[in-house]
Design a protein that fits this description.
14 helices, about 70% helix, 2 strands, mainly alpha, about 0% strand, globular
Length: about 325
Amino acid sequence: MTVTAPPAPVDVVPTGRRRPGRRRASRMNAGQSRYGYIFVSGYTLLLLAFGLLPTLYAIYLAFTRNGAFVGVDNFVRVFNDYRFLPAVAHVALYIVYWLISLIVFVVILAIIVHAIRVRWLGNTARFLFYIPGAIAGASSVLLWLFVLDPTVSPVSGLLRSMGYESLVNVVAVDNLPVVFTVIAFWAGAGGWIVIMYGALNNISSDIMEAARIDGAGPIQTAWHIQLPMLKKWISYMGIMSLAAGTQLFVEPKILAQATKNVVPEDYSLNQLAYLYAFRQNDFSGSAAISLVLLVVALGLSAVFIFRGRLFEHD
């Protein structure tokens, strides 16, 4: 009895050489890689020009004065400035309020919108959430100047019931962390709600159905299934919001101009760095403050990265 050898696979030839189809696929992959490098090159150049090189120059300025190396003297001088610790406290309090309100309310609102079964209502809600994010930061602050002024505000009754009779009373220094948190939340939360909504859509319907079959209600499903699966997205939101929160500058600057310096010019660390550079002509001190902000932001971001396991595969 004769045995017939099975036919060779389609992509293999008896001589051991690749078929033309494989060579074509290899060339296509190489071409895609080249195009990828071309697209990434634009971002890389901008990152070097406006990110890495300015950072390196700031490091140089922070450890020198008039071209001479002075070690940590610039940092010591900045830390001993009577304006530094109050600015740190203002920014820290604002970041705490901002991150807590963002993480809590954004996640809750995203889960609520995701739970809405009426399609047109869900789309409308997401659109309304996103609208404030389309307004530039400075324009947003100008809009809130009218909202916070009891004499012209649409919520003047609420403001007066809280004991505020003028814009100056509302933007008192003790109230500013809450005021800035409200402004930032109104402007930035909508975009994060849309992102969280997309992340919720990626949760398998089989998992959600299994939870319902097991008798889990909406709150149990959110706590035991949706929140753990949103952990990386929440960490990412925390990192990006932390980076933005440490750069507090536009809001107090505009409020200071609108209230004739009821809000101090050195309220935030960015404002203090600005004063060092352009009022005192001390770019070394300004660079030292910038590096302090950078190190603190990187350290806190690392906490979000490791606690949220941002770069770990599921």
